[in-house]
Amino acid sequence: MIYMVMGSLPENVDVAVIGGGVGGYVAAIRAAQIGKSVALVEKEKLGGHCLNYACIPSKTLIHISDIFYEAQHSQKFGINIQGASIDARKMLDWRMSVSKKLEDGVAFLCKSNGIDLLKGAATFLSSNSLQLTDGVTLEFKKAIIATGSTPTELKGFEFGSGIIDYKQALMLDRVPNTMLIIGAGYVSVEIGTLYAKLGTKVTILARSDVLSHFDRDAVNLVKGRMAELGIKIVTGVTPSSRSGSSVVLSDGSKVDAEVIVVATGLSPYTQGLGLENTQVKLDQKGFITVDNRLQTSDPNILAVGDVIGEPLLAHKAIRQGVIAGEVASGESSSYDNIVVPAVIFSDPEIAIAGSLEESGGVKVTKFPLTALGRAIALDSTKGFVKVAYEDDGLVKGVEIVSPDANSMIAEAALAIEMGATIEDIADTIHPHPTYSEGIQEAAEAALGRPIHFFYGKK
Q1: Residue 453: what pLDDT?
Q2: Whether residue 188 is found in the same domain as residue 177
Q3: Is residue 417 situated within a structural domain?
Q4: What is the spatial distance between Cα 151 and Cα 171, in angstroms, rounded to a whole number?
Q5: Coil, strand, or helix at residue 179?
Q6: Which residues touch 218 (CB under 8 Å, ≥6 apart)?
Q7: What residues make up the domain containing 417?
């Protein structure tokens, strides 16, 4: 069951990392860079869910669906394409090739850094030893748990027989005629939107509303676009039973669905880790508890990523992987980031960094894309930029609803981390014509000097 070993199978290492996802392999590489002997144990694929089943595959398919949809709806630009069709098998082949290329890249990086890659599961025998698949024992000085999370099942709608999770929804070799998505978070919105653009009739079942924890100004724009794409959002009901290809709802109505996707959340993956043989403790939700150095209650064991709790985001895990690799190697690092940006790859995209709450002297200003040259040229004016700031101008939060929001939000995250003010942003030259000018324009408005739209006299 050995995946790859640099030399003979190690009996002991300085650092053992359990889980080869984005948090795990980053932690392994960082510890190896410092000069520690490192073993990385992964039971499935290097890159974990992000590279193989979630982040990368979903964005790959979203891009393909965007191309296909635009090919059919670009007459306004003078582009007329007749008979556009989608080859779902080739689409899946491309999506799989992207993941494979990235997985191979991670293997190359680990090999180049002298990391022992071990294929199989790992169970703690003690605070200093692991039992690997086939009974091999690995001793370690420090261990880093990076096992991530797993899709949560819904009672009565367990996975199997046409009921799938988000991973399987991104591995279909066909475009379903109908799809029901149970759950209304960002995963549901992204999957629902991409399949609707491919021609699937999509219904999303929401307990209250889609993206219920997000700013309604942003969500309403996304919901409007989803309605244009024919996506039906059903709220205030729950699924009660399944009858053939139909799902019966709590109000007695039925939804026909060729494919049922359950996307109701994620649970920390701690199954079979043998944590009872260590001093590692879990919180009430089953996540591993850590301090600001990502140290668990066991002095020899650290943990990173989804397995330690919200936000369950790959880029958070990557940053924590760097810190954990350093801490496990004896350095005095700590996870002290102020903000973790979040992006929803909806249409339009929603990106958030920091807080937009108007309280305690915090004000919020808003710049509409209807006043942005780039947005007008590309007919993508449904969006805005919001900036929250204190009386002294300190930036507290930014929300962007726009194409390219996924890239633009990095500027906002840096501004908050660096303690920048709205004047710093306003006085920074942004390239023209770009969507990024929207951030500068919002800052200008906050200073009472808007240029390209009328915000009122200050």
Answers
A1: 87
A2: yes
A3: yes
A4: 15
A5: strand
A6: 211, 350, 399, 401
A7: 342-446
Instruction: List the alpha helices (DSSP H) in 113-203.
Output: 166-169, 186-198
> Which residues in the chain land under pLDDT 50?
1-3, 5-7, 458
Kindly list the distances between the CA atom of residue 61 and the CA atoms of 68, 137, 165, 171, in Å, as whole numbers in the listed order.
10, 41, 16, 10
Which pLDDT value is given to residue 455?
Answer: 61
How distant, in Å, are the alpha carbons of 103, 192, 250, 444 from that of 452?
Answer: 46, 35, 50, 10
Rounded to whole angstroms, the Cα distance separating 107 from 187 reads 28
Domain membership flag for residue 333:
no
Q: Where are the alpha helices (DSSP H) in 293-363?
A: 314-328
Report how far residue 304's alpha carbon sits from residue 160's, in angstroms, rounded to the nearest whole number. 30
pLDDT at residue 161, as a whole number: 84
Q: Counting beta carbons within 10 angstroms of the beta carbon of residue 332, is it exposed (0 to 12), middle (13 to 18) or buried (19 or more)?
A: exposed
Q: Which pLDDT score, from 0 to 100, does residue 458 have? A: 47
Which one-letter amino acid corresponds to residue 211? L
Active-site positions read: 432
CATH number at 287 reads 3.50.50.60
As a whole number of Å, the end-to-end CA separation of the chain is 69
Is the Cβ–Cβ distance between 111 and 233 less than 8 Å?
no
In degrees rounded to 5, what are phi and psi of residue 247? -110, 125
- The string of pLDDT tens digits covering residues 146-166 is 999 999 999 999 998 889 999
Q: Give the pLDDT of residue 8.
A: 63
* Identity of residue 23: G
Tokens representing 246 are 């139909």
Same domain membership, residue 434 and residue 397: yes
3-state secondary structure of 443: helix
Determine the 3-state secondary structure of 26 from DSSP.
helix
Is residue 403 reached through a cis peptide bond, with omega within 30 degrees of 0 on the bond before it? no
Residue 457, pLDDT score: 52
Q: Cis ω on the peptide bond leading into residue 341 (within 30° of 0)?
A: no
Give the whole-angstrom CA distance, residue 190 versus residue 193: 5
**DSSP letter, residue 232:** E
Going by C-alpha positions, the residue among 278, 279, 282 that lies closest to residue 267 is 282
